[in-house]
Amino acid sequence: EGTLVDTVQAEVERAADRYGGTARRNPTEAGLPPADLVLALTDALPPDSSPATEPGPPETLTATATATTTAVATATAQLATATAQLGESLGVEGFALARHAGVTVVLADAPAGLLYGLFELVRLGEAAFGPTHPVRVHRPVMARRMLDHWDNVDVHPVMGQVERGYAGGSIFWHDGRPRGDVARVTAYARLLAACGINAVSVNNVNVHATEARLLTERLDDVVDLADLLRPYAIRVHLAVTFAAPMVLGGLPTADPLDQAVRDWWAETTARVYARIPDFGGYLVKADSEGQPGPFSYGRDHADGANLLAEALAPYGGVVHWRAFVYNHRQDWRDRSTDRARAAYDHFAPLDGRFRDNVIVQVKHGPIDFQTREPVSPVIAAMPGTRLAVEFQVTQEYTGQQKHVCYLAPWWSEILRFAPWGDDGRTVADVAADGGGLVAVSNVGDDEFWTGHPLAQANLYAFGRLCWNPRLRPQEVLDEWIDLTFAPDARVDPELLRRTLHEIMDDSWRTYERYTAPLGVGFMVRPGHHYGPDVDGYEYTPWGTYHFADRDGVGVDRTRATGTGFTGQYPPPWSEQYESIDTCPDELLLFFHHVPYGHLLHCGSTVIQHIYDTHFEGVREVEAMCRRWEWLARLVDPAVHARVTERLAEQVRCAREWCDQVNAYFHRKSGIPDAHGRALH
Ligand code: GCW
């Protein structure tokens, strides 16, 4: 924890430098000038802090010398009293913030709280030093706020250094070895702490031969990363292969009920904790897309997850066990197999059988991070299990960081969704009571971190929504804009803010308009998943189909005539989705196969809606380009050039999507566009 306080001290110094003040630890003790910014740990205060008492050693950090010692003491004590009166405990990561009589105080029970309080001050900027700032207690809604890196240590022949990475190489690994860029990893840790992230998994969930050894012979590499992330209150997690006892331990089996296998995990885990006492735990993708798992031994996923949980339990570690289990070798002729059903079918029956330190990690939708999907029914089906909800910050299916696609509105919709109906708990509530939120990182060694500079907003927004899922996406974007582009003399803040909002606020819906329509999903190029290919997956084993023919399109997932998937939801959604009359337009083709002439609630037919939204999507991207041009002299030229280049690709690709999708449905249906536009 000492190192964490050092971090905060260093951050205070940076802030003081920037605002032209001074920063000192324990000012009263050192006889240094008092300050108008105080960061204090509650145990630094005497139990009945009276205004006359000076803020005591050992851990009081201050910056910018203007106030008197008494003013500092008074403000600190006032905040302590006010916070106590609120009756809310701060917890390990929470903090209280207030400004009183010219002194701004951040009060925390533990160093991590000070760190987050400091970043809150940075967010507030001058507002934190105005005439007054009322007492506010901040605590994260999600205790677990995690990023998963799909980074390979070795360059994978197909997936490269980072699976689904669109921002260059890995910041952790390079060509089989640790990259060793201490400054970069430290800067990353700082960036993540500023977003509120507190856990990182450092290797791909597809665990190949070299990566498997991070658990044993290559543990030093993980220790080094843990040492760099720890000062920013970030715990390291490791993706492990379920076959580890065989591939690393030389055992003949990885059967979760085998005693030698259990012993191997216990001993291996003990060695990890001997080196990394605050190690977060394991992350496992089992029996999925070729990864090994308990099915090979006739065991289920509770047996598998509990095996690792048992090994981690003595140290307080957790296992994040992914629910992304489905048959990727399905026969497209077989209409009864429905990939959307898979996670629920495998996991819901196991509810109640997982140990306390198992977190079942569920993708937010039943398929795979599409631009639009319903919320996964697993989220409402396992009341006796800790669930984490998984998002994809990396834009695999949402434009691969070549397209502007601000995802916070989408995540916000998901987090606010109430699976049991409007009066019931939300997805955010389930995650908050369970295993929190996890997302696949979008960061690489690119000079702008995320390839597309505007994609940084997604990383920031993910962290902020973990902290508080009720934040409005536009408000989060405002914070990001201010933190990213200001202060800069060239910038007209109002114009910049307005223009970025115009470009980004609705960019996810724009992306949706020119890609797969009405929730049907995919239609991307197989393999790399970029750009349109309407039938690309139609006759493949992957289970992602749209079933378009000359009469209609969509997947019948009803109980009445389809795969029965709607029955996995509790009421009211099981009914709402089942009926073609009450199914929301944007998910119609996810749940129903309908004729092209079917009338949507929005008043358009399905076919006309497809044509209209696709043309509209392209127009919106063209408008984004024009707006970005206005900012030419207002933002850093390198940032401007990079975004300009990406926007050119986005326009090209959006036109390609529009033309292919429209031509495809025109040819299938033979129905012309009501407005007579060219459909090719
Ligand atoms: O979306 C799919 C990706 C795979 C990924 C998998 C998963 C890491 O195409 O690249 O594998 O999801 O989530 O495990």
TrEMBL record:
It comes from the Bacteria. Residues 137-449 form the Glycosyl hydrolase family 67 catalytic domain. Keywords: Carbohydrate metabolism, Glycosidase, Hydrolase, Polysaccharide degradation, Xylan degradation. Signal peptide: none annotated. Residues 450-677 form the Glycosyl hydrolase family 67 C-terminal domain. It holds the Pfam family Glyco_hydro_67C. Belongs to the glycosyl hydrolase 67 family. This is Xylan alpha-(1->2)-glucuronosidase.
